Amino acid sequence: TNLQAALGVAQLERLDEFVARKRHMGALYTELLAGLGGVQFPLARTDAADNVYWVYGLVADERHGDAASIMRRLAERGIGCRPFFCPLHQQPVLRQRGWYENQQYPVAERLYRQGFYIPSGLGLSVPQIHEVANAVRAVLR
Fold this sequence. Notes:
6 helices
């Protein structure tokens, strides 16, 4: 609709501001969580691109439990998280069509089992980011 288009254009005008904010949040999370063992963090950059931290995903080693148990423990501390996206070969609609029958993708399956996103919305304040990081540290000690 025209209203949605107007909102989209207005948001695009602020894109650089949003990306700068997300990168600041990502760098702050990385700093606050540094040294936490058994956890993979998002890369800040590769040879091809710089991360804009649309989301801030963590992949925990099995010793910390699976993502579902970690997210439950974080929820008990008031921190809402989301699991990584389900791998394509496990998507019900694709399985119902007979795709990916008897196929396994261990890396995708491990990422799905062990990966989760911590809060990273543009509305988060610096104190809230510290609160999330402290909870993650406490749960993954």
